[in-house]
Amino acid sequence: MSKKQINLRPISVADAPTLFQFWSDPDVTAFMNITPMQSVKQAEEMILYITQLEHADRYTIVLEDDTIVGTCGFNYIDAMNQRGEIGYEIGKDFWRRGYMSQALHALIEEGFQTLQLNRIEAKVEPENTPSRRLLEKAGFHEEGILRQYEKMNGVFLDMVMYSLLRSDYPSI
Question: Are 58 and 15 in contact, with CB atoms under 8 Å apart?
């Protein structure tokens, strides 16, 4: 892999103005479990909510020049079962540049090495082809469809479950 272009740092309320630009974009939020935001205050509230979650870790993805390109992290960490669920999104201007592949690799390393997880999960809407490709490229296995698993705007959505086990990951 070429020189690392991104870094992960803990998400901060100071990131809200930039993240609002992403989280208010219908193309970016299309497969997130939120509706597009209307104000920076909503982004601030989302960040405050995320940072107070006890069993979760969220990071801002930044380039070497401190440009914010998105967020990623563990939506839930189940230490007892050594399992974590990841999520991520990236601003439209930064799509298809390899940044999310690098961020995903960093999350995997964090999960298996620092958090000592055995299993990393991701749930993706079936129509979210770019995210599904990203996970498959990183070695995740499609396990099946979780029928009507999440409710968004009054509609139940199917989700595809992906997983990566410690034993699947060659560098551990």
Answer: no
Q: Is the pTM of this model over 0.85?
A: yes
Please report which confidence band the pLDDT of residue 32 belongs to, taking 50, 70 and 90 as the band edges.
Answer: confident
Query: Alpha-carbon distance 112 to 62, whole Å?
Result: 22
Q: How many residues does this entry show for the chain? A: 172
**What is the spatial distance between Cα 67 and Cα 61, in angstroms, rounded to a whole number?**
8
The ranges assigned to domains in the chain are 6-121
Tokens of 96: 């298809």
DSSP H or E run through 29: helix 26-29
CATH T-level topology, domain 6-121: Aminopeptidase (3.40.630)
The Cα 60–Cα 71 span in angstroms is 4
